[in-house]
Amino acid sequence: MMSEDSCGRKCCRVMYSCNWRQPSERKRKCSCCWLSVLTAVSLLTLFWMYVCLMAFNDREDVNWKAFSILKLWVNWFMVLIIIAAVLTVYCILLLVFALVQLALKEPLDLHCLHKLFLFLGVVFIALGTTGISLQWKKEWHTVLLSLQATAPFLQMGGVGALTLVSCLVFQCFQRTRRIASKILIMVVFAGVSVAIFLSPLLIQSPCLVEEKQLPPKPALIGHRGAPMLTPENTLMSFRRSVGCHVIAFETDVQLSKDRVPYLMHDHGSHFLRRTTDVLHKFPGKDFNHSTNLTWEELQELNAGDWFLKTDPFCSVSQLSEQEKKTAGNQSVPSLLQLLDLAKTHNTSVIFDLKNNDNNDTIDTVNTILKSGIPQDLILWLPPKHRVDVREVAPGFIQVYNDVSDMDLDRGDHLNVKYSALSATEIWELRSRNVSVNLWVVNEPWLFSLLWCSGANSVTTNACSLLQDMTQPDWTMRPDRYRMIWITVDLGSLLIMVTLFILQREREAKKGFSGWNQRELSLFLPSE
C-alpha cells in the first residue's frame, strides 16, 4: 500500500495534473466530468487509429490526391499515421494515469494543457473524418469490410478490456451512496457488457470456414509491375513482377504525338510531372496532354530517378547498389516493349486506355496485333469501342468493370474494386464460372479476406509480399469459434462476479470497522 502522499502518488499526480500538491475542493468537483471526456476522446483516437490502419491499403489514393493539389509528392498518409499514433498513445497513457489515480483514491485534476491537447485531438479526428466523408467516401466501405477480418479478435479484446475496467466500475458502485447513481452505473455497465458479450451473433466472416472448403489462393496481377520495389510502369518493374509469378501485367496506355502507344499512368495536368524529369528536360513546354510529346522526346525522359528520391513505399533501402543504379536509369517504355516481355514469359496484359477515343483504340489494337503476341494473352478492359475491337481481334479476352455490362454481353471476366462485391456475390459469380479480379490489394489482411471470399485473382502493388503467403492470415471452423466465444464470455463473467463480491465484502468490512470504532467511543471516558 502506498502512503498518504508517497512518491508514487506524487508521480502519478504530476503526470495527470502537472501538480505535486493536492488540488483544491473546488477543482475536484468537475474531475469526473473530465474523466468522462478523456475516456470518450481515448475511444475516438482508437477508432481513428483503426480507420487509418485499415485504410493503409489505399494510402496511395491519399498521396495522389495531395499531389494533385500541392504538386509535391510526399508520403502524406504516413504523416497522418504518425500523428494518429502519437495522439492515440498520448490519450491512452493519460487514461491509464487517470485510472491509477482513481484506484489510489486520489482526486482527479486534469491539467489545462492536457485539456487543450484533448481538444486539438478531437479537432484533428473531426477534420479527418470529414475529409474521408467528402473526398474518400468509399473508404468507409473498406473499414466495414475490415470488420469481417478483425471483429472476432476485437470482440475478445473488448471482453478483456471490460473485465479489467469492471473492478473500477464496481468500486465506484460500492462507494456511491445515492440509489439513483448506483442504478445508472449498473444499467450502463450491464448494457455495454451485453452488447460486447453477444456481438459475435452479428459477426459474419468468410474466414470462419472449414479448411476443406477454403478456395484456392488468388492469382496475382502486377499493378504497373512491382511498384513497391521498382519504379512503376518501367520494364524493370514488370521484369521484377515476373519473379513474383504474376499471371498478368497491369498498366496504363497513352499515345504520343506520333501515335506510338506507351506506358504512363498520370495524365491531364499531372502528366509526366510525378514520375519523370519532364520539367527539367523540357522547361516551358506544354505537356498537359500525351500527344504534346513525340516518342523520341519521351525517350529522353528519366522515369526512375524520382523513385529513388521520393521512396514512395519506403523500400529503396532493400535494393542493392546495382538495382538502385538500374532503377535510376529507367526510361518510359512503349506498349510494344511490354508486349514482347509478356510474350517471352507467356504473361497476360491488361491495361487502361487513358484517352479512349476511336483513333487511340485503333492504333493500340494495331500495335498489339503487329507484336505477334497470342490474342488470348490480351485482357481487353477499355469499355468504349468494345464491339469494334471484338470484330478486329476476336481472340482478345473481354474484361468488364461492371456486372450488368458483363451480363449484357454474356462475358465471364470481371475486374472491380475489392470493396465492390460481397463474399456472397463473389461466390455466386464463381458458381457461374465468372473469373473475378479485384483491385488494388496490398495488405495481407485484405488479401486473406478476399482469398476466403473466393476471388480468382487480385491486382496488387505488393506482389513480392503476397506471393509468399501459403494460407490466409487466419481461418477457423465456425463451431470452434463459437466454443472460444462462449468460453471467453463465461470466463469474463465469472471473474467480474468474483470481483463484485470481493469488492462488496471489502466495503462491508470497512463499514463494520467504522461502526465498531463509533460504538467503542461511546464507552470510552472523555478526557
TrEMBL record:
Its main location: membrane. Residues 218-470 form the GP-PDE domain. It is a multi-pass membrane protein. The chain crosses the membrane at residues 32-56, 76-104, 116-133, 153-171, 183-203, 483-502. One of its GO terms (cellular component) is plasma membrane. InterPro entries: GP_PDE_dom, PLC-like_Pdiesterase_TIM-brl. It is found in: Membrane. It comes from the Eukaryota. Gene3D superfamilies: Phosphatidylinositol (PI) phosphodiesterase (3.20.20.190). Belongs to the glycerophosphoryl diester phosphodiesterase family. This is Glycerophosphodiester phosphodiesterase domain containing 2. The gene is GDPD2.
